[in-house]
Design goal:
There is one protein chain. The protein has 448 residues and is mainly alpha-helical. It is built from 16 helices and no strands. α2 packs across α8 and α7 runs antiparallel to α14. The chain is globular and about 70 Å long. 49% of the residues are buried. The N terminus is likely disordered. InterPro entries: AA_transpt_TM.
Length: 448
């Protein structure tokens, strides 16, 4: 949709490789660039795993705070806008002949300059990826806890902290898989699970039928409460569409030649992923809200307590899914840490270096998850600050900066609409999220 190609100041002939032997060895070791033999369906299930997070289970609750009209509009607009910005990122991956932007920050550096691009993209990307990993530590622990409660009603109550530690133990093993392609099996299982528990969530809701005295009015009674809850719900929806932070890294694993660029198979995978996203998000959000109204919990599986065996199974599916999701979001973080250690600090790229750094990272996310098991309350807050820019409008700003479409052309207008919507989202959702945190602070328990 751009009217002008990018400047080719960084042009590298297609077949030339200007890297030294040492640089090539390091790139062959780093998790993002070490394996480039992925198929288009890898892109499909990596994107499903990255996007259809446990956030989908909170969408009926977000609907209750948004209301029917605005809720449906926000869901549809978010789906369309994020698909458009994802298309832009897939297109920009190889816009300079002979060069691939394998990481989000590399594209940022090309668009905004070496230093500024790094300062703009890296902090936001890290907030998203580390934030998601911490949230998934808590989500995995809570789902295991719920499973234990449902299956063994007479058992002694075990603290959530222990379940988070059990969930983390899987990552102390899986985190040592070297790159994206090596976690494709885990990712496929996670993608299947996300579709499964979403189907259970809306299927069990539909089976239950509309509840007596169902109420579709806003939960809050005061105008201020309604407004702040609305803002908070916008942040929850932004969190549900957070897959852009790993899209370039996923595309980096697909082979590419001038005749067959990686954007072809990548886009095919994205389309499949977005169809799955629609099949998960819209039924869960709309049916969940239709059945329970404003009585729905922030996790619809909590509202659905029966049939016990089905809800227990759904919680187990959530655990398997967030195991895969954690790995998808952790891989670019591992890549950043290992790049700094090996390229900037001149550590040798060894197995022991990887073993130590990745274990420290998993332990860190586990510790924060255990300390703040209410971390999910921070979602709207983070949703605005980092999820909105990296997903809704940063790709558009890069597109305008690089391609420079003609003023008031379709491309120019579409990008500015996305930027305005994204900036509004970035401003209002942290406000709602902060109020939610303050209200809930009275009941917070550390190491609960």
């Amino acid at each position: 949709m751009g009217t002008q190609g990018p400047a080719n100041s960084d042009y590298i002939p297609n077949n030339a490789d200007t890297r030294t032997a040492k640089e090539k060895a390091i790139d062959d070791w780093l998790p993002i660039t070490s394996s480039r033999n992925a198929k288009w369906w890898y892109s499909a299930f990596h994107n499903v795993t990255a996007m259809v997070g446990a956030g989908v289970l909170g969408l009926p609750y977000a609907m209750a705070e948004l209301g029917w009209g605005p809720g449906v509009a926000v869901l549809v607009i978010s789906w369309v806008v994020t698909l458009y910005t994802l298309w832009q990122m897939v297109e920009m991956h190889e816009m300079v002949p002979g060069r691939r932007f394998d990481r989000y920050h590399e594209l940022g550096q090309y668009a905004f300059g070496e230093k500024l691009g790094l300062y703009i993209v890296v902090p936001q990307q890290l907030v998203v990826e580390v934030g998601v990993n911490i949230v998934y530590m808590v989500t995995g622990g809570k789902s295991l806890h719920k499973f234990h409660e449902l299956v063994c009603k007479d058992c002694k109550n075990i603290k959530l902290t222990y379940f988070i530690a059990i969930f983390a133990s899987a990552h102390f093993v899986l985190s040592h898989l070297p790159n994206f392609n090596s976690i494709s099996g885990v990712s496929l299982a996670a993608a299947v699970m996300s579709l499964s528990y979403s189907t259970i969530a809306w299927g069990a809701s539909a089976k239950k039928g509309v509840q007596p005295n169902v109420d579709y009015s806003y939960k809050a009674t005061t105008t201020i409460g309604k407004v702040f809850n609305f803002f908070s719900a916008l942040g929850d929806v932004a969190f549900a569409y957070a897959g852009h932070n790993v899209v370039l890294e996923i595309q980096a694993t697909i082979p590419s030649t001038p005749e067959k660029p990686s954007k072809g198979p990548m886009w095919k995978g994205v389309i499949v992923a977005y169809i799955v996203v629609a099949l998960c998000y819209f039924p869960v959000a709309l049916i969940g809200y239709y059945i329970f109204g404003n009585e729905v919990d922030d996790n619809i599986l909590i509202t659905l307590e029966k049939p016990t065996w089905l809800i227990a199974m759904a919680n187990l599916f959530v655990v398997v899914h967030v195991i895969g999701s954690y790995q998808i979001y952790a891989m670019p973080v591992f890549d950043m840490i290992e790049t700094v250690l090996v390229k900037k600090m001149n550590f040798k790229p060894t197995w022991s270096l990887r073993f130590i750094t990745r274990n420290i990272y998993v332990a860190f996310t586990m510790f924060i998850g255990m300390t703040f098991p209410f971390f999910g309350g921070l979602l709207s807050f983070f949703g605005g600050f980092a999820f909105a820019p990296t997903t809704y409008f940063l790709p558009c700003i890069m597109w305008l900066s690089i391609y420079k479409p003609r003023k008031f052309s379709a491309s120019w207008c579409a990008n500015w609409v996305c930027i305005i919507l994204g900036v509004i989202l970035m401003i209002v959702s942290p406000i709602g999220g902060l109020r939610t945190i303050i209200i809930q602070a009275k009941t917070y328990k550390f190491y609960s």
